[in-house]
Amino acid sequence: GNSVTQMEGPVTLSEEAFLTINCTYTATGYPSLFWYVQYPGEGLQLLLKATKADDKGSNKGFEATYRKETTSFHLEKGSVQVSDSAVYFCALSDNNAGNMLTFGGGTRLMVKP
Amino acid sequence: SQTIHQWPATLVQPVGSPLSLECTVEGTSNPNLYWYRQAAGRGLQLLFYSVGIGQISSEVPQNLSASRPQDRQFILSSKKLLLSDSGFYLCAWSVGGGYNEQFFGPGTRLTVL
User: Fold this and answer.
1) A63, A67, A72, A64: which is closest to A52 by C-alpha?
2) How far apart are CA B60 and CA A33, in angstroms?
């Protein structure tokens, strides 16, 4: 079956530091890949997505590139802010009729001023 | 544009009491609908999903049930709550088929005492 593995957190950074959150996946075929962000006490928001190999998703300064050869979709941001403190989830969706997502366990990011 | 609503936002219930959480989606037709539970500091657990009115698939056997009485309404219920039912309940929707993202509601925080 499908699986998504994320680096365990928490990740603690100072403001303006470079961020990388690793995500690797196992799936048959060519899934779509997503990053979601969850701020404290809120639901998940779609941050970015990529639907085919070598696609780069980007939003709010965050980027992730769909790497088929390494089955990875690492999230990066050049300069984090305190407001980026949240939990980040990597997920995939393949060709299933229910469009169910397979989620990673989530990575908590804490950015200190 | 599409919006998803959940209510109540927070709920405190005694052990053994019934539960009804409601989710509605606006601005789309025939969505797939999902119920997730998130325990404190943990990842997402898919509880139920539905691809149409009256069609419910259960992912985890437990004392919870789901119903879809209308196209854009999804209800999560229990006849008798357990302490272990405490958590953050998230509703989500997507378009049909695979490879698509899901969109999440704001969540309901349930505390069972």
Assistant:
1) A67
2) 24
Give dist(CA B73, CA B23) in Å, integer: 6
End-to-end CA distance of chain B: 38
Q: Give the model's pLDDT for residue A97.
A: 78
Tell me if B31 sits within 8 A of B95, measured CB to CB: yes
* Chains A, B: CB pairs < 8 Å: 65
Cα gap B47→B102, rounded to integer Å: 15
- Residues contacting residue A69 through CB under 8 Å, at least 6 positions apart: none
Per-residue pLDDT tens digits for B46-55? 999 999 999 9
pLDDT, residue B32, reads: 96
Handedness of CA B40, B106, A109, A57 (dihedral sign): positive
Which chain B residues are closer than 8 Å to A94 by Cβ? 98-99
Q: Letter for the amino acid at B1?
A: S
Residue A63 has pLDDT above 90, yes or no: yes
Give the C-alpha separation, A50 to A74, whole Å: 12
Averaged pLDDT score across all residues of chain A: 95
Tell me which residues of chain B have a C-beta less than 8 Å from any C-beta of chain A: 6, 32, 34, 42-44, 46, 49, 51, 57, 90, 92, 94-107, 109
Give me the pLDDT at residue B67, please: 97
A8 secondary structure, DSSP code: -
